[in-house]
Amino acid sequence: MSKMIEISGLNKDYSGKKVIDGLDLEIERGELFGFLGPNGAGKTTAIRILTTLTKPSSGMVNINGIDVAREPEKVKSEFGIVQQHLSLNRDLTIHENLELHARLHHLTKKERDERIADLLDYVELSDHADYLIDDVSGGMKRRAMIARALIHKPKLLFLDEPTVGLDAQTRRKVWELIRRMNTEGTTVFLTTHYIEEAEALCQRVGVLHHGRIIAIDSPLSLRRKLGLIAVEMNLNGNATQYRYFPDRAQAAQFIESLPDTEHVVMRESNLEDVFIELTGQKVLGGVT
Amino acid sequence: MIDAYSILWADLMALKRRGPRYLITTLVSPILYLVAFGWGLGRGINLNGTSYLEFVIPGIIALTAMTTSFNGAGTRLNVDRLYFKSFDECLMAPIGLSSLLMGKALIGVVRGLMSSVAFLVVALLIAPHIHISPQFLLGLFLTCLTFAFLGVLAALLARSHEDMAVFGSLILMPMTFLGGTFFSLSQVPVGLKYALYILPLTHSSLFLRAAALDQPLPWGSFLILFAFLVAFLVGGMVTLKKISI
User: Fold this and answer.
1) Which chain B residues are Cβ-neighbours of A104 within 8 angstroms?
2) Do the chains contact at B94 and A76, CB–CB below 8 Å?
3) Long-range contact list for A67-71, CB < 8 A, 24+ apart?
4) CB of A43 within 8 A of CB of A160?
């Protein structure tokens, strides 16, 4: 059986500038995969190509065995997408937004009614079904977008920065929803620049930098390759330096060998450390 | 066609919510034109046995159909595409591009017909001799369809909201005053007359006026208007293909 997503040699140039640079990637069925990278890394462009919104300069993309460039109309039934920006019709209610999407995916009246009721219940928006989009909170809008993306029971769900702009509580609620969808069999492909989001959700993470995957593995494996324990040193007022160790014992032994231990912190490493080591940059911007 | 209706359905839901307000605001311009040109400037003018008021009303109907169809489809799509970003969702739906194009144009037709018919009702109270025939309604429908597709084409070409305003100023505004709406083409110099035949609104005005005044119908103008419709439709299709995969 084919992979859920197969990408090979994918390139995208804008006015001579490479935004996606020779991307090769395979996503298994049922996987929860994440693209981690700073703004401008090429995450959204990659998703736009995968979802037929942008033409690649070259390369091949297959979704569920269907060539996206050759059969765009067919492939559109295979996936759902929650875009980074609000893309609901703001002149319509939540229910009407879902109904429009259900109609465009050719659900019958009976199917539409049942599916919309189920999904509103699923994302806990049944009480707000008849509210206009501008009359609900940011978290509700995001959940409405998730419900809309699921209306036709897609096998694959794209989430482009699904929790950007949401408060911590709402973010965790959306995470729960994403985990639940994945547990129920939906393959999830998300992009994020939130380290904790990638660590909390993804079974595998691709670190994207200047349109290239510079590392790909499970969050734990990526950290393990670097060292699970980080030591932060801010000695003599210089810029913070980092050392990584496989375990706490080795990290402690290293700290004991230092002349000054007052400005030294030992902690668990994270994907931010991985990103900094690989690129010299922080995921949220700035140079280390 | 079902997919086109699905697109239209969403726009109809939005229109339903603001229907009465829409009708009132859409009637302001044509009534002002009617008062200023029909009762003001044109009072006492007689054109080949027809009062200027009866002459100008079909022109204002053509003008209303043009403006509201263009804006009803074009402005709506421009907002969906560049502001709400909800047009992307339609592009990612498993429907044909022709259905998408048609669906986006149909709301312009609905709005154009609503406004034109509402103005027609007002106009009939003032000038009850206006002849409303099936041919008149056919011409009105073709006018709405043509300018709705022009609106869709403009919205697909526009890269910003300002582009739509520029399009309105450079294309619609000249047509408003030069498209045979307020004066007879027989009154202008020959060179200008032929230049004005390039404008689709000229043909719409000519056809609707002839139908409303129960004169022989200029089917040539009807065909030219239809040719404009085909050109705008093809242009829209080509542009939509360019912006989608």
Assistant:
1) 3, 6-7, 90, 93-95
2) yes
3) A68/B245, A69/B245
4) yes
The fold of A5-217 is Rossmann fold (3.40.50)
Query: Mind telling me how many Å the CA of B85 is from chain A's nearest CA?
Result: 5
Are A267 and A230 a contacting pair, CB within 8 Å? yes
Give yes or no for a contact between A49 and A60, defined as CB atoms under 8 angstroms apart: no
Mean pLDDT split into 10-residue runs, chain A, 288 residues: 90 91 95 88 90 92 93 92 91 96 96 95 93 94 93 93 86 89 94 89 93 93 94 80 92 88 89 86 51
- For residue A60, the chain B residues in CB contact (below 8 A) are none
State the residue range of the domain holding B186.
Answer: 2-243
DSSP summary character for residue B171 = I
- What's the number of domains chain B is made of? 1
Q: How far is B224 from chain A (nearest CA, A)?
A: 34
pTM, 2 dp: 0.86
Amino acid at A221: S
φ, ψ of residue B4 to 5 degrees: the values are -60, -40
Q: Give ipTM to 2 decimals.
A: 0.86
Tokens representing residue B193 in the block: 């007359």
Give the pLDDT score at A283.
56
Pairs across A and B, CB distance < 8 A:
71
Question: Nearest-CA neighbor of A192 among A182, A184, A183, A201?
Answer: A201
